[in-house]
């Protein structure tokens, strides 16, 4: 007698899976419910218009489809190759990207070319349009802003002493062929934090205290000190003048300039050699830390889904990748807030 099994073959099983998936809650559908992707696509088109193919050539995919593909890629920390595979394999991805009944799926080369075409200006347009939509939902930046920077790891590069000397002079080693040059990241740099060496880029954000949404962002190489981007990262539209930051941004001259501009800086104090902080200063630091911790939640969320790491070469592509981190985070946060 054959043993009983829970496996039951059914030609209509896929329809049942889709219904159950919607009942459980598809995260991509939650994002689609609060984001106007057609407006995002239009913003990108204004920066990088879709090229017209000659008669007889394969027409390009709609910009909205490609924007959705980029979201899926970054949201799940996928390479171009894996993005192509997952679009073929996962029905939920195809449905979100508008490819559920399409015979063609964007391949890895198409995804690569689209990213190169829109570039940093394109991802900036995405961020600005999404920020406009966030504010249209009534989520204005409130209760002050928190500025902080984090290190974004990049593939380590190995150079000889002679190559380093040449690169420090903003020149290229004579022995590097074009193919080798394309594989060498000369923009990423080394820095030390808490006694450990890190290689990659630096990512600075300003997060509003009320909604924990990223309002501004700046990408740079790792060796640039955190404090260099404080003023540039400030969000002038926050309804509160309070600025929260850690000890890396401390400076009497800076705080004086911020006060002259109408801000109320709340920057943690840093002990000097041989002169520890007073009990009052320690209590002040703890009060600021309770608020400033909210920006760490942003970095942790990005890291959790594999976003806080890049596998690209060069500052331009690194900036694009960090911009997509912010766009995807804000989309997820907007869906969570249920605007």
Q: Report Rg.
A: 23 Å
Number of helices: 13
Which bin fits the share of residues in helices?
A: 40-55%
Query: Spans with pLDDT under 50 lasting ≥5 residues?
Result: none
| Shape, principal axes of CA atoms | globular
Based on secondary structure, the structural category is: alpha/beta
Average pLDDT metric: 88
Number of strands: 6
Distance between the termini: 57 Å
Largest sheet: 6 strands, mixed
Q: What is the helix/strand order? A: HHHHHHHEHHEEEHEHEHH
- What share of the residues does DSSP label as strand, in percent? 5-15%
List the helices and strands and how they pair.
Elements: H1 13-24, H2 27-34, H3 37-47, H4 63-75, H5 80-89, H6 91-96, H7 108-136, E1 145-153, H8 161-168, H9 178-182, E2 189-193, E3 196-208, E4 214-221, H10 230-233, E5 242-245, H11 252-260, E6 264-267, H12 279-304, H13 315-337
Parallel strand pairs: 1-5, 5-6
Antiparallel strand pairs: 1-3, 2-3, 3-4
